[in-house]
Amino acid sequence: MNPKLTTPARGDSRPANAIFRRRPAATTLAMLAVVIALPLVVPSATLACEILIFAMAVLGCNLLLGYTGLLSFGQAIFFGSGAYVAALAMIHWQVGLFTALLLAAAAGGLLALLVGALAIRRTGIYFVMLTLALTQMAYFIAYTLSDWTGGDNGLLDVPRPPVAIGGFTLFDLESPLAFYGLVAVLFVFLYLGARRVIDSAFGSTLLAIRENEARAAAVGYDTRHFKILAFALSGAVTGLAGALYAMLLNFAPLSNIELPMSEQILIMTIIGGTGSLFGSLLGAGTIVILGDLLSALWPRWMLLLGVALIAVVMFMRGGLWGGLESLGRRRAGAARKTQEDA
Amino acid sequence: MLNVYLFQILNGLGLGMIYFLISVGLTLIFGLLNFVNFAHGAFFLLGSYLCYTTVTLTGNFWLSLLLAPLAVGLLAWLLERSLIRRIYHLPHTFQILVTLGIALIIQEVSIMLWGPVGKSVPTPELLRGIVRLGHFAYPQYRLFLIGFAALVAVALWLLLERTRFGALVRAGSESTETVSLLGTNIFRLFSITFALGVALAGLAGVLSAPLRGANPFLGPEILGVAFVVVVIGGMGSFGGALAAGLMVGVVQSLMASLWPQGSSLMIYAAMAVVILLRPYGLFGRA
After folding, report:
1. Is B142 contained in some domain?
2. For A271, nearest residue in chain B (alpha carbons)
3. Could you report the per-residue pLDDT of A195-242, keeping only the tens digit for each?
4. A327 vs B228: which has the higher pLDDT
5. Nearest chain B CA: its distance from A206 CA (Å)
6. Where are the domains of chain A?
7. Pick from A140, A308, A314: which is nearest to B264 by CB?
8. Is the per-residue pLDDT at A14 higher than 50?
9. Which residues of A touch B90 (CB under 8 A)?
10. CATH number for the segment(s) A18-335
11. Please, which residues have CB within 8 angstroms of residue B208's CB and are 6 or more apart in sequence?
12. What pTM did the predictor assign?
């Protein structure tokens, strides 16, 4: 019954992440290289920040969709509330950078715990509908609490506090490049953390739930418990991303907590490659860069996302990562063949 | 004072009939095809825009009432033949993603064709006046809307309950395999039902155009409400879609002047509660 998004590509009997799991070191190195090269390659450090911030949100989404098989339209709740909580704490309580980020992660995690606990009481289409209804509720709540959230105008003047210990400022984050440094360190930390979670027994159980929940339950796992925990982790990561996004923009718009935000995160996850952490970086990077390049030239570039979404589901389940992987495999296969021939 | 409430309730019934037309298509498609159509709101949008274009070109609303649903239905039929039928066998997750892609494409193409700002559609000349009943006055078009949608509902009911086609759809909703084994071309039945369901969304788009105009960003909102109606009414239930559609319409209309966000909050909360407590809907069969 459980929907699998990482069904192997045609003519390939291995799961999409089998190769990837054998070479985690290689992809980790590739990830590090991308993170270091990003501000040098893309037009601005702000854009680089945006890529990594969305890549974090996509990591969170991937944990649910790619590794547990849960299609959640609730990601905007965690992203938006992370942004609001961090911004409000900084504005009203003058908390520092790390306290604000921790609060955002906690808020995202707790809300995800709640959303997860409710939504997983149903499966399939009803599960999806529940996450959708809860996102709509969160949006209208944020809209109604306009004294706090600024409603339609968004929450203005969100500060970007410096990295400080005990009131002593270590780094100022005002320049986009300095802020990129912080975002990059957090991203690498979260990526490696996600890697560890996925390689742990916990992660294997999530995969088992994705592949066949009934069987995982029959073996004796309390699958509900695992699904709720996956939600909480996903929510915490997404909330943190939301907080960083508010700091980047100095602004927390209402659209953070709107359904299209959930869709955007989902689309990045799917186009990058479900069930691949590096795919998360690829998906977020491709779409943020495409958006930046094309939105000025052709405001209707979202049309391409619709086409890409259909194409990925119909022909390339592994997304960009899956495409790269099968390309690599084909070349490796060809090389081996020429060696044998020689 | 009472007249104000009567006015709002009548408005709510009109809105509710529009919601019914959208949702009944969604629910028919889900019932027979077991297919989740996230592009349903986008087809509604297309209906509104085709109405706008027809009215702008010919000045004839009645022509658009005929042509727009037909055109939307034809597009749906083509999509079904080319794309949708390839994903029936996939899990709902994939169906949601593909139709989400279709919705995105329709929305962006609509903006390309008609611009990012909404268009307003004039009320047809024949129905610009008001109906008086003693002290109570009500716009003719809104009254027409309720009556016309009710006629469509009756016709649809007759189609489903009294014709061979309807019998096949109902039987197919119970067991597609059996209907197929008994010698019916199930794929043709699927195409027609999909086109019919989507055409109904297009019709709803036409009927609502003189009231709300055509706006490219209306799709997701309409889709959300349609899912609320379908879930509360029970997926696959005709009567449920009617009852829940009217209920949601009247609630939204009564709360529109008091607290519009509150009514949206309420209907989505109601949807969540129904899924959790009565997953087959208030009117659906278990």
Report:
1. yes
2. B97
3. 999 999 999 999 999 999 999 999 999 999 999 999 999 999 999 999
4. B228
5. 18
6. 18-335
7. A140
8. no
9. 313
10. 1.10.3470
11. B18, B44, B48
12. 0.90
